[in-house]
Design brief:
The complex is a heterodimer of chains A (921) and B (99). Chain A is of the alpha/beta class. Chain B contains 4 helices and 3 strands. In chain B, α2 (32-43) packs across α4 (61-73) and α3 crosses α4 (61-73). In chain B, 42% of the residues are buried. The chains are: A alpha/beta (921), B mainly alpha (99). β27 (589-590) of chain A pairs parallel with β1 (15-16) of chain B. Bound molecules: flavin-adenine dinucleotide and iron/sulfur cluster (SF4) (3 copies). The site of one iron/sulfur cluster has 13 residues of chain A, from α3.
Amino acid sequence: MNSGAMERSAEGAPLKYDALVVGSGIGGMESALKLGDMGYKVLVIEKDASVGGKMILLSKVFPTLDCASCISTPKMAATIHHPNIDVLTYAQVDGIRDNGDGTYHAKVTQKPKFIDEAACTGCRQCEMACNVAVPDEFNADMVSRRAAYIAFPQAVPKKAVIDRAGISPCTYECPAGIKAHGYVARVRSGEYEEAFGLVLETTPLVGSLGRACYAPCEEQCTRGELEGPLPIRRLKRFIADTHYGRDGLTPLEKPEQNGKKVAVVGSGPAGLTAAWQLARQGYGVKIFESAPQAGGMLRLGIPAYRLPNDVIDDDIGNVTAIGVEIETGKRVDDIPALKDAGFDAVLVATGTHKAVQLRVPGEELGGIQSALTFLADVKLGNPVDVEGKKVLVVGGGNVAIDAARSARRLGAASVDQVSLECCEEMPAHDFEVDEARAEGITLHDGWGIDHFEGDSAVQHAEIKVCTCVFGDDGRFAPEYDETMRDTIDCDVVIVAAGMLADTEAFGLETNPNRTLIADDETLQTAVPHVFAAGDVVTGPTMINSAVGHGRRAAFMIDKYLQGQELDASLFDEALGVVDKNDVLRRQDVYDRREPLESSAIMSASPTDFAETEGPMTEDEAFLGAARCLDCGVCSECHACVDVCPADCIDFSMQEKVIEAEVGSVVLATGFSLFPADAKPQYGFGRYKNVITGMQMDRLLAPTRPYNAVIRPSDGKVPDNIAYIMCTGSRDDTVDNPLCSKICCMYSVKQNQLIMGALPLADVTVYYIDVRSVGKGYDEFYQQARDMGANFVKGRVSGITETDEGNLVLRYEDIENGSALVESEHDMVVLAVGVQPSRGVAELFGDGDGALALDDYYYVGEVDEDLDPGRTNLPGVFVAGAAAGAKDIPDSILHAGAAVAQAAAHLERAKVADEAKAKVTS
Amino acid sequence: MMTDDTATTAPRPVIRDAVPGQRDVREVIRDEQVMRRQILGVLADGPLTVPELAAALERPTHEVMFWVMGLRKYGWLAEDKEVNDDGYFRYEAVEREGS
Ligand SMILES: Cc1cc2nc3c(=O)[nH]c(=O)nc-3n(C[C@H](O)[C@H](O)[C@H](O)COP(=O)(O)OP(=O)(O)OC[C@H]3O[C@@H](n4cnc5c(N)ncnc54)[C@H](O)[C@@H]3O)c2cc1C
Ligand code: SF4
Ligand code: SF4
Ligand code: SF4
């Protein structure tokens, strides 16, 4: 709020004003200023980011040809700085309720601007850096604006606003909390390093996630509702490849130490991410890792054809570069004891590295091993003996698939895979099952192991048909058809039947399945300085969830070590996800843009661990990112945050609901313009050089969208412009019999301005009759004729477009025997009329307190001629074009009438109150 | 404020496969970020008019208008003072403020 007019009230109690003015166009500003000058306290609510309404966007005003912004801006500034007026911009009135005593209760929502208005200097740096372009409604959609924007150069307040429709589905869906839309937008702008930096804000594992993440973001991508989702994961791989592949990388800076130490046990995605986040905040972090190399399941589980070791090295390099120490080959058992070793807090992120056993006869035979051991050996380069052997893999999950495909690469003679679930129900992703099959793995789905046989080493497995995997309660309880059996010969069996947390030695509370017990929100265990994150808490999940947990744990540990409350609400974004249907409805038509084909190169008999998926070329990345629909509008790319010199961007801002008691209401919501495409015969929207009167006013204004009056189709200076009057006015075919009052005069104004700006241009006006009623208006019209504007009395029935973008008008030439005539112009301006603004009546609801509209849906006045401004509701008045089409002088006059009515109402109430007070005393 | 000026009266169904030359304004404008690099690349050889630029990019002139005007608004391009004999301004790449 701008000033101190508001009567401060007790915490939570509604604010008190004498008048609520809804809308801050010339009608609203005039009303507020007059009431304020009379000493009344006024609250103005404007839905846009600036006050000023339509007038501030005009070029000049008729008939004086004064510059619209020169006469508007002083009023805008006066309104916002008036000691008796509070203005809320970017706010909406949700409802106005009659208190029954001539006063009203208003509920207003202040939408978050995501900018600290007090600090914003209006420098526009955010806007210049922003990566999202949307149509500029303040320039009648003729040019772009940015998601971060200042409405227009003379905006009051001149403060930026960030346009956020919600969190984009991709970002919302990411369990890691990566700003997926943000990095996609950065790639689209060619800002690859910045894109990499944005992912680093969440996790150091850019390359690993770019390869091995299962990309739930893509499943939710709105573009998936059209031709298919964006390659969001592969774009991350692209930015990682680009970053790590660059020569002369600038080393990451080591943050200043804060003197506190944190131990992280486990160097998987959860541990590495937490360590990274904590170290960036100045904590001294040491990771203890029992395996010989860091990386957790990235290193020990995921095969190199999906995630090469050098990528893991690069990612871990980020963590060590900022000073995190990693001690490998160091198993920690007594967790609480780490405190004695000097650590202020401990994070347990040890994952699930214990294999679940099948518990079937013969499991102890030689040649049978767990998939975890097998995969770790392969990845660490330890000897494994499968070459020429018949390999049987047991399990239907991703780990089983990884083991089977690895065995294939190591030269196994055959690889069979047995899965309890049938193919469609296997926990492995469909694409992985398909890829495994393409590589020659024989899948026996819907079978389970009965027992293994062999002398000392396994020789074959007897399998039986599995009829059901889970019991009614959803728990694992397989049932078999004991009569349907088969055998599979095998020399090596790799079992991937599940994974357990190995937590017995920790001295911490565990669940029956051995996962650690930690608070869901804070991840704190029963031992206050010990936190736990990742699969050791959740059971086996995915890299992205572990990263998300790691980040949360770091946030909570920081709070804990600073002695602050562990408030989970501060960790999550307050904004909800944007509705995909709302996103799709923003456009009428979508140009088909096919998604990128998968680049996986599949071989029927792979022989090495080379990556199956190829890198993206820069062009592919560019085209991939270009398909993004900017669902949330702002992408959260943080470019604005990076450049804002006042450090005033705050994405955590939330909307505020404000309640106010008001003595009167002035509705000054103005008008809306006739949608020109409702007259399809004129081709607006299809023919690029057919524009509306408002668009021409913008082209003529000093803050215009183009550098001059030029054609939208090709930038040519027009030399033959036509005006079609009464578009959407006095026209029963569009249900509007009314004259719009302003279109004749604004066209005449524009005629004069065009002839001034383009002395060689011809201007022809097709009209039915020119209505120039008002002081000096007819002279103004004559002046346009004298300057050379050609007025043709004729009704235009249709327009066609030539190959050059010129427009052929067919019209009835009324003054020449009503012959049908054609004429060619290189630009056409539709003098669109006005319509009532929608939604005003809804503010009051139905029933007794309903606001009456007139026959044309403008706010109704009980007696337009004798009692202007008064509505059917006592204490509610209407000012300006909300009551019917009006030009600026008439809007101001009408606002004066409404103000006088409101003041009289307030005074009457005061007198009545005083009288009542006298009687009681 | 003025969104209703260019608003359509029709409900907004999702129609696939836009008619050539009739892409949704929102989609064209969204492409400004992608086209920037190409436009600046083409203009590196000297200033061009919108039709010349459109020919070089093989894109419709009215779409190029949106991009050129957007890039001009955000300080990447500037126009020549005078129009050429055919009635077109030429636009050139300029050093961005603060860059
Ligand atoms: C192309 C064109 C050219 C024109 N040229 C001239 C000219 O030269 N001279 C002239 O005298 N007149 C001209 N006019 C007319 C002039 O624009 C209007 O007379 C004037 O703007 C009316 O002012 P207003 O305050 O009543 O409405 P508006 O200017 O429409 O302002 C209403 C304000 O209320 C806001 N609002 C609406 N609903 C809500 C809500 N529920 N809650 C909060 N805020 C809300 C709107 O965003 C807007 O800011 C022209 C009009 C057009 C279209
Ligand atoms: S976060 Fe990015 S997209 Fe959002 S306003 Fe800032 S610069 Fe624009
Ligand atoms: S279209 Fe873009 S913003 Fe929307 S979900 Fe897909 S990637 Fe995210
Ligand atoms: S960069 Fe910061 S100070 Fe400048 S306009 Fe944007 S938010 Fe305001």
